[in-house]
Structures are given as C-alpha cells and as structure tokens.
Known about the structure:
Blueprint: E1 6-7, E2 17-18, E3 24-28, E4 33-34, E5 41-42, E6 47-50, E7 59-60, E8 65-70, E9 74-79, H1 98-106, E10 120-124, H2 134-141, H3 143-157, E11 161-167, E12 178-182, E13 185-186, H4 191-199, E14 207-211, H5 212-224, E15 230-235, E16 238-243, H6 248-254, E17 264-267, E18 274-275, E19 289-293, H7 311-315, H8 322-330, H9 334-339, H10 350-354, H11 361-380
Parallel strand pairs: 2-16, 10-11, 10-14, 11-12, 15-19
Antiparallel strand pairs: 1-13, 3-9, 4-6, 5-8, 6-7, 8-9, 15-16, 17-18, 17-19
Amino acid sequence: MLKIRYPLDSELANSIREMRPPKELHVNVRNLVLKVGKGAVLRKGDIVAEHPSKGVGAFHASACGKVSGVNYHSLTVKCSGGEETVDPVNVETMGKGLELLRALQGLGVDAALFKGGAEVLVVNGQNPEPGISVAQQLLRDGREEIHAGLQMARRLLSPGRTVLAVPKGEETSIPGAETVGVKAKYPYSLDALVVRAVTGREFPEDVRVVNVMDLYDLGKVVLTGLPITETLMSIAGHNYRVPIGTPVRHILDALHMAAGPGDIVVLGGPFRGEAIYSLDQGVKKGDHGLFITSSDSIPAVQDAACINCGECVLQCPARIQPHLISRCAEYERFDEAVRYGLNSCFECGLCAFNCFARRPLLQYIRFAKAQILAKGRETRS
C-alpha cells in the first residue's frame, strides 16, 4: 500500500474576485422548511427557508427578485437587479444569551457551533481540501472579519484557551489566539484531526472547533448586521465571492469553462464534495470549491461488489472498516453499520477515492447517516 498525503498549501497570486451576478437564482431547499412561495417578491437578505434542526442558520435571498418556481430541490428567483436590502441587525448590543444566538441564527449563522461553553476553542485555519485555498486567502485578506468573528465566538463560548491551527512553518496569527502548526496534508485538515493535533486527545468534550470560513461569516454578520448571502469558492486556481444560489451553468459561462458529456462537476472539494445532478443546480452556503473531472480521467464509480482488498481500511484515518459499513448501508442494515463504526466516520472520502472496485463508499456512509437521522426525527415527532 502506498499511503499518499495530499498537499493543502496553495500559491495566492491575487485578491478575492467578484462573480458576475446571475440573472436567476436556484436556492437549494431540499429538506428545508420554506418561508416563501411562488410569486413572493424578495429583497436581498430576506429569509427564504429554515432548517428543521435546531441551531442551523436560516437561508436567505442573495439578490432582489421574484420567486418564479418551487420544487423539491430548489426555489427559483428571477433577479430584478434591484438594490433593496433588509434592515441590519446590531448583534453587538445584545447580551450573550438566547436572544443573541437566535439573532445570529436568523442571519444565517449556525448558532449550534457557539452554544454552551468550551474550555478550548480551536480555529481550523487549514485549507479544507486539496485545490481549495479559501482559508489561506481569508487569513491573508479577511483579517478584520475574522478578528470580529473570533471576538464574538469568545464572547459566546468563554474559552480558557484559544488556538489557531495553521500549516507548520507559517507565521499567520490573529489577535486573541495562540498559533499552533499542524501538517499541511489532507486529511489532517479535518476538524477531528486538527483537534487531536492541538490537544493530543480524540473527541474531547470540552473543545469546540470552528473553521476560518465560518468565523469569517460570523465576523461579517457582526460588522454589517446583514445575513449571509454569499460563499467563497476556489475555482480554476482563483477565489471568487459567489452569491448563494448562483447556478453552476452561470459560473462556467462567466469563467469560460466547459463541462462535456460524461464529465463530473463537483461542488465542494475533490474528496468530500458532491457531484451535481444538473448544471442548473445552485451553489450552497458551505460550497467552497468547484471542480470538473473529465470523463476519461478516472474510472467511473459504480455499484460493484466489494473485492475485500482492505485498501479502504488501510487509508481510513478514523481506523474503522468502511467496506463493512458500506455493505450494511447498501442493504439498509443501519444498526449494524453503527456497530461497525458509522458514527466515528469523518467523511474524509479517502475510502472511496482509493477503492479499487470504485464503490461509492462515502455516498453509502452519508446515506446511512441521513436515514438514521430521519428515523430519529420521525420517532421524536
């Protein structure tokens, strides 16, 4: 077995670029609670949907326009080109109780990250995956927002120690946090492995971890009082500010990129991202990259039988058995999947990336987790 470590560092040659505004938004609303319907006229920042789980941030219109259609997957907004926005909310004047958390959640922040307390707050400053340099870019060009976000996070969590984890050898720092160097190789950018590198412990209950992108969003909300309406994405070697809901087709046209028949277009990273079902699919809040894999570059993923080679076990940083978990998920034996370590999976994607049989291991694992979560919701209701 050749255990490859994939580098995370990138060369930053320019500042963040602005994506050309789209004429239409396709906001992902699958499994969300809709707050608007067809015909609704929206200002930039109006709430369009909420998540059924407590603490997850609301979803907002990233441009003015009118809702022209709604289906299971997305809400379509015809952009008007207007500049009307929602009124800002001054969250800095609020106390640090439920009022503040609810206000942040209403502005798109995942408030569950900042609920309760923590002895140690770890800021994950690593680029999340190879080919994505957003974290590195923000630590260089988004220091004001990151500083404001860190102040708010410390106010909410009251940690005794705050640590910024960055690649070894870098001298990056932010006020109020000590700097610790970690390996700039994937999968060491995963939150669980960053926490282990900083604290020497696995899954410590008194440690909270937040990545630089979420901290930047929090800081921007604090400074402007406006909701999160855009995401930062690494595309073809550059970083762009992209309105949430922008169709992938629009991005490809704006950047003169093309996806041919059989090519795979991935939102997110090359390991953990998701292949889109249509070029009309809109980008989501947590999408920080866009990649095109040509049809002739790698063998296609297929529902082939496991050949018991053990490669996924050897590659797994969580030390579990992805081949057994995926088989249980494939046949809907979810309780057995849990016994084999389903809940210990980091979803790093290394198992599927290295699978000789080209089985969709990560997708099976995510399917099992989603089904267990859905079953839990049905039981509670």
